[in-house]
Amino acid sequence: MKAYFGRRYMLSASHRLHSAALTPEENLAAYGKCNNPHGHGHNYVVEVLVGGAVDAGTGMVLNLAALDETVQKRVMERFDHTNLNLDPLFVNRVPTTENLCRAVFELLDGTVGPAKLEQVRVEETENNFFEYAGR
Amino acid sequence: MVFLTRRATFSASHYYWNPAWSEAENARVFGRCSNRNGHGHNYTLEVTVAGEPDPVTGFVVDLKWLKDVMERDVLATYDHRHLNLEVAEFAEGKAVPTTENIAIAAWKRLEPAVTTAGGAKLSRVRVYETPEIFAEYRGEL
Predict the structure, then answer these.
(1) Residue B121 near residue B115 (C-beta atoms within 8 A)
(2) C-alpha distance from A37 to closest chain B C-alpha (Å)
(3) Is B39 a catalytic residue?
(4) Which residues of chain A have a CB within 8 Å of the CB of B138?
(5) Which of A58, A126, B37, B107 has the largest count of CB atoms under 10 Å?
(6) A5 and B16 in contact by Cβ < 8 A?
(7) What is the mean pLDDT of residues A81-90?
(8) Which residues, listed in sequence order, are joined to residue B47 by a DSSP beta bridge?
(9) Which residues contact B123 (CB under 8 A, 6 or more apart)?
(10) Contact flag A3-B103 (C-beta cutoff 8 Å)
(11) SS3 for A107?
């Protein structure tokens, strides 16, 4: 019997939206105040959705403690209280929340066995969020 | 196709225990949740139905009707109850009342009424155990 399990995590990080492919004027036009040279920060909510068969013995899709440990090691330790622009993943990729969402998916994909990673949702503020399902 | 979701809350106690395992094994797998004195949560039940809006009423289903079905088929049995001790599907030796199994059990309780009513199909049942933890069941895919 397939079910889905979701868990929300919070991380705080700073970023600046700036593309090397654009002129200073174009960057300002595209990113507005998010282009501020000194950056700014958010409390991001990362929602991880996994799917799989419910184990007959445990009644679980996967062990929550194991998921927490994986997310802690692969995502939180990497991004929490950091400047996203300095992470190697964002050297050539603007750290928009779309790209952060995709990066989190790629860091977790294949590491949440026996379940399958179904979707990552990142909320940048209470009013905007992004979802990536790996395709 | 339009999806319509209704939320309701219930409070219940539970513990995780597999009688086929030793006490040590239960403690290892379920941690603090295996304490047989139980503990409780404020759960949020989110029920999503899908269908075409009725040309006359503009409703996928009548929200008051859905509220009553959720109340009668789920909340009346789960709210302010001990799930292991008072709800048949979670009796010892049956399903462990994990969030996953609560989502599946709530689906099974709701599905006949939604299907019988015609019009809309049950699409998704999501159960939040805390604001940070939820499980979802979408039927047999």
Answers:
(1) yes
(2) 34
(3) no
(4) 2, 4
(5) B107
(6) no
(7) 96
(8) B6, B125
(9) B3, B48, B49, B50, B138
(10) yes
(11) helix
CA B125 – CA B108 distance, rounded (Å): 10
B98 interfaces chain A, CB cutoff of 8 Å: yes
Q: Show which of residues 14-73 on chain B sit within 8 Å of chain A, judged by CB atoms.
A: 16, 18, 20-21, 29-31
Total domain count for chain A?
1
Active site residue B23: no
Q: Can you tell me the distance from the alpha carbon of B32 to that of B39, in angstroms, rounded to the nearest whole number?
A: 9
Q: To the nearest whole number, what is the mean pLDDT of chain A?
A: 96
pLDDT band of B108, cuts 50, 70, 90: very high
Q: Which domain holds residue A14?
A: 2-132
Residues in B closer than 8 angstroms to A65, CB to CB, are: 31
Q: Is B129 a catalytic residue?
A: yes
Single-letter amino acid, residue B26: N
Determine whether domain B2-137 maps to CATH 3.30.479.10.
Answer: yes
pTM above 0.90, yes or no: no
User: Are the beta carbons of A27 and A18 closer than 8 angstroms?
Assistant: yes
> Does ipTM come in above 0.90?
no
CATH classification of the domain holding A20:
3.30.479.10
